[in-house]
Amino acid sequence: MTSERNTDIEIRLLIEAIYLKYSYDFRNYSGASIKRRILHALRQFDCLTVSALQERVLHDPGMFMQLLQFLTIPVSEMFRDPSHFLALRNEVVPLLRTWPSIKIWVAGCSTGEEVYSMAILLREEGLLERTILYATDINPHSLDKAKQGIYSMQSMREYEENYRLAGGRRDFAEYYTAAYGNAIMDSSLRDNVTFADHSLATDSVFSETQLVSCRNVLIYFNKELQDRALGLFHESLCHRGFLVLGSKESVDFSAYSERFEPLVKPERIYRKS
Amino acid sequence: MNGVRAVVIGASAGGVAALFEVLGALPPAFSLPVLCVLHLPDDRHSQLAEVLQRRLHRPVREACDKERISAGQVYVAGPSYHLSVEHDLTLSLSQEAPVHFSRPAIDFLFISAADAYGDGLLGVLLTGANEDGAKGLAYIKNNGGRTIVQDPRDAQVALMPEAALALHQPDHILTLSGIGQLLATLETRAC
């Protein structure tokens, strides 16, 4: 029990050290998950204690970049929760169409699957040409992968089914070129995408938007940080703009529950009230 | 078993029937929170909470992210997300990689709940064809909590209880009806 208490203290110190040295702020992440990820990293780096890991991270920026790959969770899919994308297509797109130009922020875009899904949907609805997409994340490696748009063919075969269920209108294979077991996304999908390093924990709003998509990111934040992120989205969104969240996320337990109204509640699609 | 503040239950193959029997034995006024992870197919729309609630006539719901744990409530983890307990006794969901091919993982619930409740936690591991939960149950014990393993001879599938027994000596090895009876006495003794 003493060693567990020590571990909890060490984890707090490590997170504080990372913030002071590298300005990455994990202080308000959900504790249980971040603890698991740090302990997992500990084993990968052959460190006996979190303090030993902290020493290496503090003195070696390269080591921090490696640790960052453990602290962020690059779990994503294209058209994840197909019914969500179907609802976007049927309920949101007709309203989105009424703006002459559209700005969309995909916050916490990870390795880009959500961005390409959104771009494909917009292209099929004839809106991609007049849309600017901002795709942001705190992990530069994930952003690089997102920019490259290369995914394994194995995962693309899974996404194909998602795409179909999400109301996709074409042959999914039209959006990529297959080579050596990988799929390279059609680069024109990202002509209007700006990829940028942005932290929901420390940065501020950079543009007015009509839609913010932030899926399976808020679950890793505690309530305080969730409120901060929702505050940024609220500030960024124009009058009656749209907020879309992950299938287990909601504004219900937040300070912003009154400032967003559900448009398609089961699909976590909200509108600024 | 004085001082139990929460109960966590894990099960896999054969788990639905086992959960019915254990939870069905609880008195209507049972006021401890009960958190369950049952391995399920990776289907977004699980009916487990609704089915349990209808059959058990007690409040059961799928655990939500950032929800505060309330007394007398049974929570079940939904599919595709891990369920954890935070130090402030709220629930959190996450999508880290599956453990023993399972998301939700019993180990994640048990370990995080042990961190949050310490010696106030009671862990129960039931039938299953998987080693998930064994590590978590031992962790509960090491953190001062109490543990119960379903008697492998009573389990529909013995692998999960056997894996737990290989890792640590629990406080009780009981049949499903024994577990139900013991849980039912918890509160009267705690008061």
Any chance you could write out the topology, listing elements then pairs?
The complex is a heterodimer of chains A (273) and B (191).
Chain A: H1 2-22, H2 31-44, H3 50-59, H4 61-71, H5 82-96, E1 102-107, H6 113-124, E2 131-137, H7 140-148, E3 150-152, H8 153-165, E4 176-179, E5 182-185, E6 193-197, E7 209-214, H9 223-236, E8 237-245, E9 260-264, E10 269-272
Parallel strand pairs in A: 1-2, 1-7, 2-6, 7-8
Antiparallel strand pairs in A: 3-5, 4-5, 8-10, 9-10
Helix pairs in contact in A: 1-3, 3-4
Chain B: E1 6-11, H1 15-24, E2 34-38, H2 48-56, E3 60-62, E4 74-76, E5 82-85, E6 91-94, H3 106-117, E7 121-125, H4 134-142, E8 146-150, H5 159-167, E9 172-174, H6 176-190
Parallel strand pairs in B: 1-2, 1-7, 2-4, 3-4, 7-8, 8-9
Antiparallel strand pairs in B: 5-6
Structure description:
The complex is a heterodimer of chains A (273) and B (191). The N and C termini of chain A lie far apart (49 Å). Chain A is α/β, with parallel strands linked by helices and 273 residues long. Chain A has helices at 2-22, 31-44, 50-59, 61-71, 82-96, 113-124, 140-148, 153-165, 223-236, and strands at residues 102-107, 131-137, 150-152, 176-179, 182-185, 193-197, 209-214, 237-245, 260-264, 269-272. Chain A has a seven-stranded mixed beta sheet with strand order 6-2-1-7-8-10-9. Chain A has a three-stranded antiparallel beta sheet with strand order 3-5-4. Chain A is globular, with a radius of gyration of 19 Å. Chain A contains nine helices and ten strands. Chain B is α/β, with parallel strands linked by helices and 191 residues long. Chain B has one domain (6-184): Methylesterase CheB, C-terminal domain (Rossmann fold, 3-Layer(aba) Sandwich), CATH 3.40.50.180. Helix content of chain B is 34%, strand content 20%. The mean pLDDT of chain B is 93. Chain A binds chain B through residues 1, 4, 8, 30-33, 35-37, 73, 75, 81, 216, 218-220, 222-223, 226, 247-250, 252-253, and chain B through 44, 64-67, 78, 81-82, 84-87, 90, 92-97, 108, 111-112, 115, 118, 142-144.
